[in-house]
Amino acid sequence: MVSHLKHVGYNVLQIEADEKAYLSLYSHRYEIYLALNYSLGIHGKDRYAHIPAMCEMLGIPYTGASPLTQALVMNKAKAKQLCKAYGIPTLPYQLFSSPDDKRESRLSYPLIVKPVGQGSSAGITNDSVVRSDAELKKQVTLILKTFHEPALVEPFLTGREFSIAMLGNPPKFLPIIESNHAHLPKGYQPLDSLEVKWYVEEEKDSDHLLCPAKIDTRLRGKLENMGRQIWEALDIKDLSRIDIRCDEEENPFFLEINSPPGLTPPEVSKSSYFPFAARVAGMDYDELIKTLISAAETRYGLRRNNK
């Protein structure tokens, strides 16, 4: 990303989002025109909020959503609660803090077990789909021991799965991505698991991702309307990527929101979803980065000739 920023004319100061980040931001606070926040933090359940909070404390403009939004996005359960309050279709779920917690009767198998506060498909594997109490207990135990946080359990839908990239303020939709689970290798569960994202999509010649998705006007309208509702409910800024899955009747349900979404340059990964959708829209990586920065500049009212 740094080489692309320099290529389009920006002077770049790289700051690692670790324990020393505040010291670097503080030392350079009068030099920083805009912070491109691509950080996920390293410690704590609210780590997505750390860099935005530091920037706000120091009066540094930054890309992306506020600390409050970032903290909500990090917690899948809280994001679902808020979306449900806004009337956005969400699946019923239950948080498990112990493997001995009893499954609520409203949850029927098959179910999927996820860590409540992780991104990049961490903790979501081929074994995450469970079909019995024994499998549920085993997977909940694994999540609790691995991530030291509650496990979120919800129905496992087998309908179509979409990823919706949105850019700007108000947001514009990039071409919708559909995960074509029918093309996964034999033995893979039909979901975007860790194995799929980091092995199938990266290392195999695969047409697993369809972009633009082949959807009719009715379904596209549903997906885009849901995307706008989620953006507004969570007060997203500049960019995000929203994951939605349908039931067998093509009724869409909110899964989670990625803020910031992955922005891996194409020379590193051809399957990083947001840049992939941008390329399909005719926007190369340099233009994508410039458009993102322009959105934040406009939001802050920044006008600067030398970058």
Automatic annotation (TrEMBL):
Compartment(s) where it occurs, according to its Swiss-Prot or TrEMBL record: Cytoplasm
Protein name: ATP-grasp domain-containing protein
One of the GO BP terms on file: peptidoglycan biosynthetic process
Similarity-based family: Belongs to the D-alanine--D-alanine ligase family.
One example GO MF annotation: metal ion binding
Domain ATP-grasp: residue ranges: 80-294
Keyword ATP-binding recorded: yes
Pfam short name (any one): Dala_Dala_lig_C
Natural source organism: Candidatus Chisholmbacteria bacterium RIFCSPHIGHO2_01_FULL_52_32
Cellular component GO terms held in the UniProt record: cytoplasm
Stored Gene3D superfamilies: ATP-grasp fold, A domain, ATP-grasp fold, B domain
Keywords, comma-separated and alphabetical: ATP-binding, Cell shape, Cell wall biogenesis/degradation, Cytoplasm, Ligase, Nucleotide-binding, Peptidoglycan synthesis
